Amino acid sequence: MRKIKILFICHGNICRSTMAQYVLQHMVEQEGIAWQFYIDSAATSYEEIGNPVHPGTRNKLNLEGIYCGNHRARRMTKQDYEYFDYIIGMDTANKKNIMRIIGRDKDNKVYKLLTFANDSADIADPWYTGNFDITYSDVVRGCRGFLEYLQQKS
């Protein structure tokens, strides 16, 4: 069986997209279906490239009992569009910047995470808000909705 490949995207790839990466990884491990997925994350900017997961994200995940690996920020490439099945941004600006990188979404792979929770809102960037709890709550809602979406689809 072919793995479902998911790429989470935010501006710098040190807070929200890495949080979503590890939250979804934790969820599929808990469900016993991790073998069905390849989950990664990337940035739309060059600002944080090579930097580790933000300490606030790492701390919040640790508090929730979620393993946080040693992901290093990388920038999304046009080639990622061909490789991944789902490219999921955290906010409207991310989605716009994803489109700048890929050109066009001919295969309808680009989404905003909270869309899967029937919510059009953006996930707030804790880099600016300092509130990793609210971001975590939204990421969990979006990831749960995404897994439900995949279950309904299959």
TrEMBL record:
<keyword id="KW-0904">Protein phosphatase</keyword>
<comment type="similarity">
    <text>Belongs to the low molecular weight phosphotyrosine protein phosphatase family.</text>
</comment>
<feature type="domain" description="Phosphotyrosine protein phosphatase I">
    <location>
        <begin position="4"/>
        <end position="149"/>
    </location>
</feature>
<protein>
    <recommendedName>
        <fullName>protein-tyrosine-phosphatase</fullName>
        <ecNumber>3.1.3.48</ecNumber>
    </recommendedName>
</protein>
<dbReference type="Pfam" id="PF01451">
    <property type="entry name" value="LMWPc"/>
</dbReference>
<dbReference type="InterPro" id="IPR017867">
    <property type="entry name" value="Tyr_phospatase_low_mol_wt"/>
</dbReference>
<keyword id="KW-0378">Hydrolase</keyword>
<dbReference type="InterPro" id="IPR050438">
    <property type="entry name" value="LMW_PTPase"/>
</dbReference>
<dbReference type="InterPro" id="IPR036196">
    <property type="entry name" value="Ptyr_pPase_sf"/>
</dbReference>
<dbReference type="InterPro" id="IPR023485">
    <property type="entry name" value="Ptyr_pPase"/>
</dbReference>
